[in-house]
Design a protein that fits this description.
Radius of gyration: 15 Å
Helix content: 25-40%
Structural class: mainly alpha
CATH topology of one domain: SP0561-like
Number of helices: 4
Distance between the termini: 7 Å
Number of strands: 2
Shape: globular
Strand order of the largest sheet: 1-2
């Protein structure tokens, strides 16, 4: 039995995409690897009380950062560590 690394749809790998309407707090909780992107841009969204209300669109606008570039970097961080945290070995039923 094989353990699929990604969800497959019609034989194609399904790409994770960021929902630009998701609040930053949820994004960082679901994919902690994205925190490094915010820190790299000197965005102090981590732990900010507004992160429960601001979306990526809001944050990019507030910090004067290009949204497309930010989205690309966020998606790269998500892809590096799909679960978001420290890399782990996949667990497969035997």
């Amino acid at each position: 039995m094989s353990c699929p690394a990604v969800t497959r749809m019609d034989g194609m790998a399904k790409k994770k995409e960021v929902d630009i309407d998701m609040v930053l707090e949820e994004l960082m909780q679901r994919w902690p690897a994205t925190i490094s992107v915010f820190l790299r841009h000197r965005m102090l969204c981590i732990g900010c009380p507004i992160s429960g209300f601001h979306t990526l669109v809001d944050a990019a606008r507030e910090h004067g950062i290009d949204l497309d570039m930010l989205l690309e970097e966020i998606e790269e961080a998500m892809a590096e560590r799909p679960g978001g945290g420290a890399p782990t070995r996949p667990s497969c039923p035997r």
